[in-house]
Design brief:
mainly alpha, isopeptide bond, 5 helical Cullin repeat like, ubiquitin protein ligase binding, about 800 residues, Cullin_homology, 31 helices, 3-stranded mixed beta sheet, single chain, ubl conjugation, Cullin_homology_sf, 3-stranded antiparallel beta sheet
């Protein structure tokens, strides 16, 4: 109906109405009858032409096709008597009463067009707009009061959700009737109201009345909220959509139309959601016994459910409010309990998706600092437990690498800052600190095992990995090296392993060795430059050996001799007090090389170290002859069997004069390992002083060249103590030198200042204990490098 009226009352967008319109003479008859039109036949019969003629007389220039301005000064109507106006007013009032009475079966006394025309007469001709406006106010108030009473009475025969449907129907009926009234009383809305700026238009007047008499009524508000609460509880308890959800959707639409959505609905939904989930949290934790991990999953599921419902039913602004209320009800006051109890099972499960859920929930509650704290504590404990596990030291580094890789993956995939899309900086710092503190749980051993793990990798090589992948693997191991304070321990063991790889030619790639040394020297410790000297020694030794061989006659056995001359200061080998007795022919070949070397380098002394020497022997077994690659100790023992078929342990010991422990390990590798080139009586895995050994002529192996591994000596407590003593001795020298350098530069310092600067000076090698620093300072005072101030015993002065 409204659309039809709009078309009737709107001017056309384009029309020739003004140019085709002829001047009219209005007869003084009744306003209800059409005026008679008498056409003018003179030249200026057209009003536009007449106007232009007048303008020419006045000297104005008028464009033929210029703009035409239409100005309406007032509505002018014909003269009516007072009775006609009163009749029109009475008809409009009666129609308003019928229209605004819900369920009325009374017919209108006139058509909609008649109502429209009566309104025009009352407002424009009769100037009764104020009377009609007041009548409309009265009818709207009456109608709204009736609607309110109807809604209150409806509670007697329907439940809360059905009542919401009744309310929605009332709202829909009222809004429809208001639209009709606006259309019928268009003259009142567009003429009288516009002239009186203090008046509300019909729409605002009707909605204000509805709000005052219905929506502001406490009972109605309580009934609305009761229905909404019952609907929410039903869906939350049953976990599915209520068949009457559409009632609430329509309710939201009408409340928005009446501008009371925030006050009546949104605020209540937030409060009710908070209360509901606070109660549910208590029940789940204390009655159902939910663990923190399970409760966190429950929270994420509940938040997702509430969000999905809010997106469908509520306004957009309510979605975030409902999410916040849900999280507050479930999580508020429980973040510490959740973080402490959930982080461990989540980390153990190795599921970054579940960690991401935890991060999201804690971030929404502004509790990331709590989650970060527990994450740090857990990581630190795991690292410390791995390092302190002496029963599984052989897999310590693999465990640390695996755990570190997972933690870094969690940073990249779970702990993401939503703004920067980068790993959360606080969690990154926490991970670094946790590993660093975890490594403090045990001194020295982690650094030693990191060096040994790198040794295995450098021996094994990249195999099926690309250069980039292998380099990344090495970097991950060095990443652990950053966390240890005992960098001097790592350097000691790495140099030992490097020297063995180079001398025994066990390194997979010299290029990777040099790249690793460069990386260690530039990024970690400048003293790794010692490795460069090792490579220089090997290069010079090869050149010297090549020159020596060129001087030998062709075809001699000495061409097979390979000697490496090493500077003791660059290689981590101590001088051996006792070594094996070599066969005479071996000793003569070594003597010839010594003579050649001294002819080139006078004043230098060569000390032979046979412990890492190797030899290649040809062994004739019954089936076939094979080449055996053995250590020099193994070769010396095997060569004894060229003279005797069987030898006892004591005979071999007397012939070689080898260290007993070394001899037993050598015999064990030859007679008790997988490749038994010797037989032993009695048979067993250990070597005793009463054992007798035989050459195993029946030895077989599918390969023509057979490598027989040596049995590495396990580190005894005495050797471990000796190594630690050596490291401690080096540390004392570092500390003494650092203290003297500092005092020489500063001349005078308090003990606290000296302690702080000393730790800073040596921290790239190790982190000293405060008690050790105090001992070294006292020692330097005794040696008269320092003295105490006479007035302040806590102040030290450098003695030049």
């Amino acid at each position: 109906m409204t659309e039809v009226l709009f078309r009737l009352l709107s001017l056309p967008a384009k029309s020739k109405g003004f140019t085709a319109y002829q001047h009219t003479v209005i007869d003084g008859g009744s306003a209800s009858s059409h005026p008679n039109k008498t056409p003018r036949l003179d030249a200026d019969s057209d009003p536009g032409s007449a106007s232009r003629s007048r303008d020419r007389v006045k000297g104005k220039s008028v464009e033929k096709d210029g703009p035409l301005t239409v100005q309406i000064h007032d509505f002018v109507a014909g003269v009516q008597d007072r009775a006609a106006y009163d009749n029109s007013l009475a008809r409009v009032k009666h129609c308003l009463k019928v229209i605004l009475t819900k369920g009325s079966k009374e017919l209108l006394p006139t058509t909609y067009e008649g109502v429209y025309n009566d309104c025009r007469v009352v407002v424009c001709a009769g100037t009764k707009g104020a009377v009609l406006y007041n009548a409309l106010v009265i009818e709207l108030d009456r109608s709204c009061c009736n609607l309110r009473n109807e809604l209150v009475k409806a509670t007697e025969d329907c439940d809360s959700l059905e009542w919401l449907n009744r309310f929605v129907q009332v709202c829909a009926w009222f809004e429809g009737q208001v639209m009709l009234v606006r259309a019928l009383l268009a003259y009142l809305d567009r003429v009288h109201v516009l002239k009186n700026t203090g008046l509300l238009n019909i729409h605002d007047l009707a909605f204000t009345s509805f709000k005052r008499h219905v929506l502001d009524y406490t009972t109605i508000i309580d009934l609305i909220q009761t229905g909404v609460r019952d609907w929410l509880s039903w869906e939350r308890n049953d976990g599915r959509e209520n068949p009457r959800r559409a009632y609430v959707q329509d309710l939201v639409s009408h409340l928005v139309n009446h501008s009371v959505y925030a006050v009546v609905f949104e605020r209540f939904v937030g409060e009710q959601t908070l209360a509901y989930f606070a109660e549910e949290a208590e029940k789940k934790i204390h009655q159902d016994g939910f663990t923190p991990e399970r409760f966190l999953e429950h929270t994420a599921r509940r938040v997702a459910e509430e969000r999905a419902r809010a997106l469908v039913v509520f306004q957009t602004t309510t979605v975030a409010l409902v999410e916040r209320a849900t999280r507050r009800g479930l999580l508020e006051g429980r973040l510490d309990w959740l973080a402490a109890g959930a982080i461990e099972p989540l980390m153990k499960a190795r599921g970054t998706d579940r960690l991401d859920t935890a991060y999201t929930e804690f971030a929404a509650m502004e509790g990331l600092n709590i989650l970060c704290r527990e994450f740090k504590i857990y990581v630190q404990n795991v690292v410390a437990n791995i390092i302190k596990d002496t029963d599984h030291e052989d897999v310590m580094i693999e465990k640390l690498l695996e755990f570190k890789t997972f933690c870094e993956g969690a940073l990249q995939n779970a702990f993401i800052d939503p703004q920067t899309k980068q790993p959360n900086r606080e969690f990154s710092y926490a991970l670094t600190d946790a590993f660093a503190y975890g490594f403090k749980a045990r001194k020295n051993k982690p650094a030693e095992l990191i060096a040994k793990h790198l040794d295995r990798l450098m021996r094994r090589g990249q195999r099926d990995m690309s250069d980039a992948e292998f380099d990344k693997l090495l970097d991950s191991v060095l990443g652990l090296y950053r966390y240890t304070d005992d960098k001097d321990v790592f350097r000691t063991f790495y140099h030992r392993a490097l020297s063995r790889r180079l001398l025994l030619e066990r390194s997979a790639s010299d290029d990777f060795e040099k790249a690793m040394l460069k990386k260690l020297k530039e990024n970690y410790d400048p003293e790794f430059g010692m490795g460069d000297h090792m490579f220089n020694d090997l290069a010079l030794s090869r050149d010297l050996l090549h020159e020596y061989r060129n001087r030998l006659p062709e075809g001699g056995s000495r061409h097979s001799l390979s000697v490496m001359v090493l500077q003791r200061s660059y290689w981590p080998f101590a001088a051996r007090k006792k070594d094996v007795d070599l066969p005479l022919w071996m000793q003569s070949e070594l003597a010839a090389y010594v003579a050649f070397y001294k002819s080139k380098h006078q004043g230098r002394k060569l000390d032979w170290d046979h412990s890492i020497g190797t030899a290649t022997l040809k062994a004739r077994f019954s089936p076939v002859t094979k080449e055996l690659t053995v250590s020099l100790y193994q070769a010396v023992v095997l060569l004894l069997f060229n003279e005797s078929v069987e030898l006892g342990y004591k005979q071999i010991l007397e012939a070689t004069r080898m260290d007993e422990g070394e001899l037993k390990r050598t015999l064990q590798s030859l007679a008790c390992a997988n490749k038994k080139v010797l037989k032993k009586q009695p048979v067993g895995k250990d070597v005793d002083e009463t054992d007798v050994f035989y050459f195993n002529s029946e030895f077989t192996d599918p390969r023509a060249k057979v490598h027989i591994n040596s049995i590495q000596a396990k580190e005894t407590p005495e050797e471990s103590t000796r190594t630690q003593s050596h490291i401690d001795s080096d540390r004392k020298h570092y500390l003494d030198a650092a203290i003297v350098r500092i005092m020489k530069a500063k001349k005078e310092l308090t003990y606290e200042q000296l302690k702080t600067q000393t730790i800073e000076a040596v921290k790239s090698h190790f982190v000293p204990e405060v008690s050790v620093i105090k001992q070294r300072v006292a020692g330097l005072v005794e040696q008269e490098y320092l003295r105490r101030d006479e007035d302040d015993m806590n102040r030290y002065i450098y003695v030049a």
